[in-house]
Amino acid sequence: MLPALVANQIAAGEVVERPASVVKELVENAIDAGATRIAVELEGGGIELVRVTDDGSGIHAEDLLLAVAPHATSKIASAQDLDGVATLGFRGEALASIASVARVSIRSRTSAEAAASVLEVEGDACGAVRPAAGPVGTSLAVRNLFFNTPARRKFLRTPATEQERCLDVLRHVAMAHPAVGFAATVEGRRPLDLPAGQSPKERAVAILGRELAGQLIEVHADEFDDSRGVAIWGLAGLPAIARGTNKSQHVFVNGRAIRDRTIAHAIAEAYRGLIEPSRFPTVVLMLEMSPAGIDVNVHPAKAEVRFRDSSLVHSAVLRALRRALQGADLTPTYGDVRGGVVKGLPPELPGSGIVAQGGAAAGGPDDPAGATARFVGYFQRFAPGRPDATLADAIAGTVPAGTPGGATAGSAPPPRPSPALESPSLVPTAPASRVLQVHNSYLVTQDEQGVVIIDQHALHERVMFEYLLARVRSGGLESQRLLAPAPVPASAGQLRRLEEVAPLLARIGVSAAALGPATIGVHAFPTFLFDRGVDPVEFMRELLDKADAGLFSGGGSAGGAGGENADEDALRDVLDMMSCKAAVKAGDHLSDIELGELVKLRGDVERSSNCPHGRPTSIRLTIRELEKLFGRA
Ligand code: ADP
Ligand code: MG
C-alpha cells in the first residue's frame, strides 16, 4: 500500500497539472454548489495563490474534513449514478489531490449554520475544523502550488503565462454559465468582470470581444435535432475572424467545457472551403443531450467525454453550422480583410449584425438538401444540346463548344428569365446591377450594402466546384472515350497506386490503366474538362504527382469518422484541382452576358463567398467604409 499522501499526489499528477487546473476544479465546485457569484483571485500567476470565493450552498462544518478526503463526493453515491451525472464534479478527487500538493485553506458556511468554519490542509498535515466569521458560501485558497513536489513545479511556465491560462480556463467555464457572475482580480486589476444573469449570447460576446459582435452568426438547432436527442445553440464566426489557433473554439456539452475530436472535425468540415485549412474558425457551441448519451468519466480532468453515438453528434453539429453559414452573407468587407484598417467603424455594419438564425424549418429556403436540388436543377436546365442553353453553359462548361445550342460570346441568345435565380439567393445581389470587368481579372458590381469586387477566377472556381460536386453526387460525371489511350509517364509507385485511386477516378469520369512498365494510359476523360480545353496527359500527370504527395489519401482530415470521410476528402481534393483548371483565369476577357451570369451564379451557389481553398471570392466596400475613406463620415 502506498502512503495516502503519495497516492493523492499521484492522482494530483493527473488532475492538477498547473494553476489553471486548480482554477477549473474550484470554479466547477462553486458552480455545482449553486453559486450566483464567483470571485477568483490570482497571485504569481496562480502559483502563489488561487482563491475562489462563492456564495453557493457551503459545506457544513461536519463535512469539511470529508470534502478533502480522497474519493469523497457529495454528488454521486453509486456506480449507476455515473450514467446520469448532472454536476461538473463527481470524482471526489480534486480537493484531496490539490491539498496533497499545495497549502489549502477552506472557509465555508451553510445557510443552516450561524457561523463559518475553517480548515487548513497541507500535504498530509490536516488541521482541526475551527469556527470563524464569514458569510454563507465557500472561500477556498490554494497557496504555493507544488511546494512539496519541486520536480512538478519546474514544469510550470512563467507566472505571466500561467496567469493567462488561468484566465482562459475561467473564460471558458464562464461562457457555459452565463447566469453566474464571475470576477477575476490579479494584483489589484480586474481582467475579467462578468455580471450575473447574462444571456448565453451576451456572455459569449462579452468573452469573445464586443468588437466581434457583428461577425457572429447565431446557430440554433433544437427544432430539427430534437427528435434525435441533441439540441445545439451557438455562435459561428464569419470566415474573416478565423484564427491561427483553436483558442477561440469553445465547445460545451451539458455545461461542461470539453475538447472533442469528433466535434472539432465537424467544425472544420462546416468551414471547409470557407477558410484556409490551417486556420480555425471562431465558434461557440453548446450541446445539450441526455446525460445517458455521454460518458463523462473518461478523462482525469474531465476535459473529454465519450459520446455513445458520436456520428449523431458529428452530423448534428455539421448540419447546424452549415445551415447557419449558408443562411448568412459571408462576403467580407474591406475592413475585415484589412484587419480593421478602416478604423473607427462601429462593428454593426448593415446586414452583418448577428446575421442569421440558423434553424429555418427543414425544407425551407435554407435547407441544404433543397439548395443542392435547386442547384443541380439549375445546371440541368442547361444540359448539352438544349436549345435554350446560354452562356451560363459556356461558363459552366456544360455545353461542348460548337454544338447546336452551345452559344458563344458572339452569338448569345437574348437574355431570358432564369426561374432558378428567383429563389431566395444565399448572397443578396442587387437585381440587374451593372457589372464591370477590370483588367480582365476583377468584376465590380454593387449591392444594397455597397460596392462588391469579385475575383473572377476565384468565384468561377467555386461555381465549378459546387457544380462538379453536385454532379458527382448525383451519379458521376459524363466522360468521353479517347480514340487511342493517352500515354502518361508514371513511376513504379504510381503504377502500383493506380488501383487505389481507380474508384476515385471513376467517380470523376476518368478511366486509366497500366499501358506499359512506366506508362499509364488514359482511356476516358470527363467531357467537362475536354470542353474547357484541359489536356488529359497534363491533368493526369498532375494528379499522380498530387497522389504521391498524399493529397488524395484523406490524410488532411482531422480525424473523425474514418473511411467515408477520407474518400470524401479525396474527392474534394480532386474536384478542387479540376475546378481550378476549368475556371476562367485572371486575364480572360468575359462578355457582358458572361459577366452577368457569373455574378448571378454567385447568388445561387453555396459558399460562393470563398473559393475552394478558403480565400475570399468577393470583397465588399460598404457605403459606410466609402464615406469614412472619403472623410464624409
Ligand atoms: P467532486 O467535485 O468530484 O465531488 P471535489 O474534491 O471537487 O469532488 O469536492 C469534494 C466535495 O466537497 C464535493 O462533493 C462537495 O460536496 C464539496 N465542495 C467542494 N467545493 C465546494 C464548494 N465551493 N461549495 C460547496 N461544496 C463544495
Ligand atoms: Mg469538484
Describe what you observe in this structure.
This protein is of the alpha+beta class. It contains 21 helices and 23 strands. Strands 1, 2, 3, 4, 5, 6, 7, 8 and 9 form a nine-stranded mixed β-sheet that branches. It has a five-stranded mixed β-sheet with strand order 10-11-14-12-13, with helices on both faces. Helix 2 runs parallel beside helix 6, helix 6 runs antiparallel to helix 7 and helix 9 (261-270) runs parallel beside helix 10 (310-326). It is elongated and about 95 Å long. It starts with a helix and ends with a helix. The relative contact order is 0.09. The model is unreliable at 340-431 and 554-562 (pLDDT under 50). Residues 25, 29-30, 33, 54, 56-59, 67, 72-75, 89-95, 138 line the site of adenosine-5'-diphosphate.
Summarize the structure.
The chain is an alpha+beta fold and 633 residues long. The protein has 21 helices and 23 strands.
List the helices and strands and how they pair.
Blueprint lengths: L3 H12 L3 H14 L4 E7 L5 E6 L9 H4 L26 H7 L2 E7 L6 E7 L2 E2 L3 E3 L4 E7 L6 H4 L5 H18 L4 E6 L2 E6 L5 H9 L7 E5 L1 H4 L4 E8 L11 E5 L2 E2 L3 H10 L12 E7 L4 E2 L10 E2 L2 H17 L7 H4 L30 H13 L10 H6 L22 H4 L13 E3 L3 E6 L2 E6 H18 L5 E11 L2 H16 L3 E6 L2 E8 H5 L4 H13 L14 H20 L9 H13 L13 E5 H7 L4
Parallel strand pairs: 1-8, 12-14
Antiparallel strand pairs: 1-2, 2-7, 3-4, 3-7, 4-5, 4-6, 8-9, 10-11, 11-14, 12-13, 15-16, 17-18, 18-19, 19-23, 20-22, 21-22
Bound molecules: adenosine-5'-diphosphate and magnesium ion.
